[in-house]
Write a structure and sequence with these properties.
Organism: Tumebacillus lacus
Radius of gyration: 19 Å
Largest sheet: none
Distance between the termini: 48 Å
InterPro entries: Ferritin-like, Spore_coat_CotF-like
Strand content: under 5%
Protein name: Spore coat protein
CATH superfamily: Ferritin, core subunit, four-helix bundle
CATH architecture: Up-down Bundle
Oligomer: single chain
Order of helices and strands: HHHHH
Helix content: 55-70%
Mean pLDDT: 88
Number of strands: 0
Number of helices: 5
Structural class: mainly alpha
CATH topology: Ferritin
CATH class: Mainly Alpha
Main location: other
Number of domains: 1
Subcellular location: Spore coat
Low-confidence stretches: none
């Protein structure tokens, strides 16, 4: 097997992360009550299983997979996002005696898992010499990016992820300091 040491270790870490994500998504799906959230988690879990199986298959038999770049379509336009703070609810750790996650907590956990997985996939891809492993890890980063955004949309629509804003004048002053060359 012609994998380099960094490559093998990075793939090992990503596969461990995928197993954890797949297991957590099943737990979240079992405990969620909102059908939309359950569907979202189920789709994300199925995608994670396919990605895990693809990477495992390639590490066992390098002819098993020829990855292609993954493309996702986003249906939301920037106009669909709710901006501004609307009395955000206080946040605190869960009372461990409850033993049950609630939908907002589940959505937040799934969002954070996808954000971290996207970062980890991207960082791992930078250590890979094999172009197919590299592409599979890039695909994983892209998939997690889009899935994180889907969770953000779910949360934003329900007021669970509010987007702070600043005055238009401040934003323009801040960003218009950059000029084309």
């Amino acid at each position: 097997m012609p994998f380099g040491a960094h490559e093998a270790m990075e793939v090992h870490e990503i596969l461990n992360e995928k197993i954890c994500m797949i297991d957590h998504l099943q737990t979240y799906s079992d405990q969620a009550t909102d059908p939309t959230l359950i569907d979202l988690i189920s789709r994300h879990r199925n995608h994670a299983i396919r990605a895990y199986n693809e990477l495992v298959a390639y590490t066992h038999d390098m002819t098993a997979v020829t990855p292609i770049e993954v493309q996702f379509s986003q249906v939301t336009s920037p106009g669909g996002i709710q901006y501004g703070l609307r009395n955000p609810a206080p946040q605190s750790p869960m009372d461990v005696q409850l033993g049950q996650f609630y939908d907002a907590q589940i959505a937040r956990s799934v969002l954070l898992a996808h954000k971290n997985s996207a970062k980890n996939h991207m960082a791992a891809s930078l250590e890979c010499a094999d172009p197919y492993v590299r592409q599979m890890l890039l695909n994983g980063a892209t998939a997690c990016n889009y899935q994180a955004y889907e969770v953000f949309e779910y949360m934003n629509a329900r007021g669970l992820y509010q987007v702070p804003t600043m005055s238009d004048h401040t934003a323009k002053t801040f960003l218009h300091a950059y000029q084309t060359r």
